[in-house]
Amino acid sequence: MTNNEGNILEFANGAILERVSLEMGNILKNIMDPNTPATKKRSLKIQIDFSPKKDRNNISVSVSAKSVLCSTDEIQLSMFAGKTENGLQAVELTAEIPGQMTVLGEEQYQRKVMKIVGGKN
Length: 121
Hints:
By secondary structure, the chain is α+β, with helices and mostly antiparallel strands. It has 1 helix and 5 strands, in the order H-E-E-E-E-E. Helix content is 15%, strand content 31%. The strands form 2 sheets. Strands 3-4-5 form a 3-stranded antiparallel sheet, with no helix packed on it. Strand 3 and strand 4 form a beta hairpin.
Protein backbone atom coordinates (compact mmCIF):
# COMPACT_ATOMS: atom_id res chain seq x y z
CA MET A 1 0.00 0.00 0.00
CA THR A 2 1.45 3.38 -1.00
CA ASN A 3 1.15 6.60 1.00
CA ASN A 4 -1.50 8.03 -1.27
CA GLU A 5 -3.84 5.02 -1.15
CA GLY A 6 -7.13 5.53 0.62
CA ASN A 7 -10.80 4.68 0.51
CA ILE A 8 -13.79 6.53 -0.92
CA LEU A 9 -14.53 8.20 2.43
CA GLU A 10 -11.17 9.97 2.22
CA PHE A 11 -11.78 11.36 -1.29
CA ALA A 12 -12.69 15.03 -1.86
CA ASN A 13 -9.93 16.06 0.53
CA GLY A 14 -11.71 14.38 3.47
CA ALA A 15 -15.03 16.20 2.92
CA ILE A 16 -17.02 12.96 3.04
CA LEU A 17 -15.59 11.99 6.43
CA GLU A 18 -16.20 15.53 7.64
CA ARG A 19 -19.87 15.31 6.63
CA VAL A 20 -20.25 11.93 8.34
CA SER A 21 -18.67 13.36 11.51
CA LEU A 22 -21.03 16.35 11.40
CA GLU A 23 -24.09 14.09 11.21
CA MET A 24 -22.66 11.86 13.96
CA GLY A 25 -22.44 14.97 16.15
CA ASN A 26 -26.11 15.71 15.42
CA ILE A 27 -27.03 12.18 16.47
CA LEU A 28 -25.09 12.40 19.74
CA LYS A 29 -26.64 15.79 20.56
CA ASN A 30 -30.08 14.32 19.91
CA ILE A 31 -29.35 11.32 22.16
CA MET A 32 -28.17 13.61 24.97
CA ASP A 33 -31.20 15.94 24.66
CA PRO A 34 -33.47 15.23 27.67
CA ASN A 35 -36.49 16.26 25.57
CA THR A 36 -36.12 13.23 23.26
CA PRO A 37 -36.87 9.56 24.00
CA ALA A 38 -33.74 8.02 25.53
CA THR A 39 -33.93 4.54 24.00
CA LYS A 40 -35.29 5.16 20.49
CA LYS A 41 -32.99 4.40 17.57
CA ARG A 42 -31.30 7.11 15.55
CA SER A 43 -29.57 6.38 12.26
CA LEU A 44 -26.91 7.70 9.93
CA LYS A 45 -27.50 7.12 6.24
CA ILE A 46 -24.68 7.54 3.75
CA GLN A 47 -25.64 7.38 0.10
CA ILE A 48 -23.03 7.20 -2.63
CA ASP A 49 -24.30 7.46 -6.21
CA PHE A 50 -22.07 6.64 -9.18
CA SER A 51 -22.88 7.98 -12.67
CA PRO A 52 -20.45 6.55 -15.22
CA LYS A 53 -19.99 8.17 -18.62
CA LYS A 54 -20.30 6.19 -21.83
CA ASP A 55 -16.57 5.45 -21.93
CA ARG A 56 -16.86 3.87 -18.43
CA ASN A 57 -13.67 5.66 -17.33
CA ASN A 58 -15.10 8.97 -16.17
CA ILE A 59 -17.45 8.55 -13.21
CA SER A 60 -19.35 11.32 -11.45
CA VAL A 61 -19.81 10.56 -7.77
CA SER A 62 -22.38 12.15 -5.47
CA VAL A 63 -22.24 11.54 -1.73
CA SER A 64 -24.75 12.53 0.93
CA ALA A 65 -24.84 11.87 4.65
CA LYS A 66 -28.11 12.24 6.54
CA SER A 67 -28.95 11.69 10.17
CA VAL A 68 -32.39 10.50 11.19
CA LEU A 69 -33.12 11.87 14.65
CA CYS A 70 -35.89 11.46 17.21
CA SER A 71 -38.33 14.29 17.54
CA THR A 72 -38.79 15.85 20.94
CA ASP A 73 -41.30 14.33 23.34
CA GLU A 74 -44.85 15.63 23.13
CA ILE A 75 -45.86 18.22 25.70
CA GLN A 76 -49.20 17.45 27.30
CA LEU A 77 -51.40 20.09 28.93
CA SER A 78 -55.04 20.85 29.61
CA MET A 79 -56.95 24.05 29.04
CA PHE A 80 -60.44 25.40 29.47
CA ALA A 81 -62.07 27.61 26.85
CA GLY A 82 -65.17 29.73 27.20
CA LYS A 83 -66.99 32.94 26.35
CA THR A 84 -66.56 36.09 28.39
CA GLU A 85 -67.95 39.61 27.91
CA ASN A 86 -64.70 40.38 26.06
CA GLY A 87 -64.92 37.41 23.67
CA LEU A 88 -63.48 33.90 23.74
CA GLN A 89 -60.66 33.02 26.12
CA ALA A 90 -58.64 29.93 26.91
CA VAL A 91 -57.04 29.29 30.31
CA GLU A 92 -54.35 26.75 31.07
CA LEU A 93 -55.55 24.26 33.68
CA THR A 94 -53.11 23.43 36.45
CA ALA A 95 -53.28 20.80 39.17
CA GLU A 96 -53.16 23.33 41.99
CA ILE A 97 -54.36 26.87 42.60
CA PRO A 98 -51.75 29.41 41.45
CA GLY A 99 -49.57 30.42 44.42
CA GLN A 100 -50.47 27.24 46.34
CA MET A 101 -47.79 24.71 47.25
CA THR A 102 -47.83 21.55 45.14
CA VAL A 103 -47.45 18.07 46.59
CA LEU A 104 -43.77 18.31 45.63
CA GLY A 105 -43.31 21.42 47.77
CA GLU A 106 -43.08 23.83 44.84
CA GLU A 107 -45.25 26.88 44.33
CA GLN A 108 -47.81 26.47 41.53
CA TYR A 109 -47.02 28.88 38.72
CA GLN A 110 -49.54 31.44 37.49
CA ARG A 111 -51.91 30.20 34.80
CA LYS A 112 -51.68 31.78 31.38
CA VAL A 113 -54.81 33.27 29.83
CA MET A 114 -55.09 33.55 26.06
CA LYS A 115 -57.56 35.92 24.46
CA ILE A 116 -58.87 34.56 21.18
CA VAL A 117 -58.62 37.30 18.56
CA GLY A 118 -61.79 37.69 16.55
CA GLY A 119 -63.57 35.41 18.96
CA LYS A 120 -66.53 37.63 19.97
CA ASN A 121 -70.08 36.25 19.89
